Amino acid sequence: MEYAMLSDRHPPTTAPPPASGAADVVPVLADVLRLKPEKIDPRRSFRTLGLDSLRAVEFVAGVNARYGTRIRASELPDHSTPLSFARHVTRALRAGRTEAPGTATATLTAPVAPVPAGGPGREVLDVLTEELARILCCDPWDIDVRAGFPVLGVDSVIGAEFVAAVNRVYGTRQRSGVLYDHPSPAALAAHITRLTSRSTTPQDVESLLDAVRDDLLTVDEALALLSRRG
Prior knowledge:
The chain has helices spanning about 25-35, 45-50, 55-65, 80-95, 120-135, 155-170, 180, 185-195, 200-215, 220-230. The protein is mainly α and about 230 residues long. The radius of gyration is 20 Å and the shape is elongated. It has two domains: about 1-110, Orthogonal Bundle (Non-ribosomal Peptide Synthetase Peptidyl Carrier Protein, Chain A), CATH 1.10.1200.10; about 120-195, Non-ribosomal Peptide Synthetase Peptidyl Carrier Protein, Chain A (Orthogonal Bundle).
């Protein structure tokens, strides 16, 4: 799944912050954006505050974990400021759209994939870590492969570049939304390992040839992939 970037469809409101007892989403937002809560103006739009599509998912998951709500990230663009979204959360609480507090799944922040000790899974993880380190301009050993991509500093732009690199190396045709379904390097590596470990079929060969023709893979990379699948 892939969420659209937040927009300023609703102008910032001049209403005061939510009254006592209403949902307060600013602490969650501050944690996601790595800011102090007092630095956040709840009347400004999420876009101007720096919340991109990847961090938006983390933010909504954090709100759900805090209040036990079941709000979807796709609802966020309809409430373009923290103040507006806080009111939406309050309405959800009053309507009973809740689970037990603290039980909501924090997508992108709690990867569960194990780190392989060896074999193809470890090889894929090492390659993905090197590619991500190259894009982030850091050393591979500085990357915690269990951490969620937003925690590692991967926003929507970097995420798209990273997925493109993965597609180039492995001849896959993944879209940026794969980072939502597999939200850490370890989880993504497990997914790519499953894709590339399937038995080679004529259709697989044709897909690799298409990737070479489209300059997504070199001939050597395609041959290496065929040898792994054979």
